[in-house]
Design a protein that fits this description.
- By secondary structure, the protein is mainly alpha-helical.
- The protein has one domain (2-255).
- It has helices at 2-19, 22-49, 58-79, 85-91, 95-100, 105-111, 120-134, 143-169, 181-187, 200-209, 217-225, 230-233, 235-255.
């Protein structure tokens, strides 16, 4: 509870600081929404060439895209500072001040930069999902189904956090200013599309090793179409296992950190 209370205070502090510069906040929010708009344009281009993509219709793919925007935008908002771990914290030695404070190092790094403007991407994702649902007459809007949607969405967010926590932690072993996070980020786009369109080796990577398919396609695909629930209902288990592994890598990396002193 103490950790959660301090996290809430830090969030309010960042919120007040960002609201002091509303013009900058608005421009940053537009930048976040441009990512989603570009993804929507690309989806429109793809479906304009064929009415179905590997058996999936336009509005089914639209729902999956909207679903993916929510956990990804939450990651940008609350954990985007992981991009800076290798350069700003490890190489420049700013992790020293983090480790001196009686508060979890991972949360400190995340709360050093909370991009509240990126939460507008969550609203865009919800709007895209609602648009898709309106055009999907067989979509189940029961309370139980909507509760499952929330659980799977939270699990998808946890998967994203775990993946990038793990790859950011590799900076403790391989000190590089760029790190592993930006290259891995580009693979996240693959999780928005039906897994069957990929080569079996690539499908294996984004399902088992870097489980981005559980960020969007598997959970959202089950919500929109039903069928076999096995892959979708694995999402919370994948999220928990990924968080445990990422936490172990993070703690191991922290223990081998030796500062940047000359």
């Amino acid at each position: 509870m103490r950790t959660a209370r301090i996290a809430w205070i830090l969030f309010l502090t960042v919120l007040k600081r960002r609201l002091a510069y509303r013009g900058d906040l608005l421009l940053a929010a537009l930048d976040e929404n441009m990512r989603g708009i570009i993804a929507l344009i690309l989806l429109h281009v793809y479906v304009s060439k064929t009415p179905m993509l590997h058996g999936w219709t336009q509005y089914e793919l639209l729902f999956i895209l909207g679903f993916s925007l929510v956990p990804i935008s939450l990651f940008h908002a609350f954990c985007g500072n992981l991009y800076q771990l290798s350069n700003l914290y490890i190489i420049q030695g700013n992790l020293d001040r983090v480790l001196l404070r009686p508060y979890p190092a991972f949360l400190q790094i995340c709360f050093d930069r909370i991009a509240i403007e990126d939460l507008t991407g969550v609203l865009l994702g919800i709007g895209v999902m609602v648009t898709a649902i309106i055009n999907l007459p067989n979509f189940d809007i029961s309370v139980l189904h909507l509760a499952l949607l929330i659980v799977l969405m939270i699990s998808a967010f946890a998967v994203v956090v775990a993946v990038f926590m793990a790859f950011a932690a590799t900076g403790f072993w391989f000190e590089d200013r760029v790190g592993m996070v930006p290259p891995v980020y580009n693979l996240m786009e693959l999780g928005r599309w039906p897994a069957g369109i990929y080569h079996p080796a690539l499908k294996l990577i984004i399902t088992c090793f870097i489980p981005f398919s559980f960020v969007a396609f598997y959970p959202a695909g089950y919500l929109v179409r039903g069928g076999d629930p096995f892959p979708a209902l694995l999402t919370p288990i994948i999220a928990l296992a990924s968080l445990l592994l990422a936490s172990w890598l993070w703690r191991t990396g922290i223990r081998r950190y030796h500062s940047s002193g000359s």
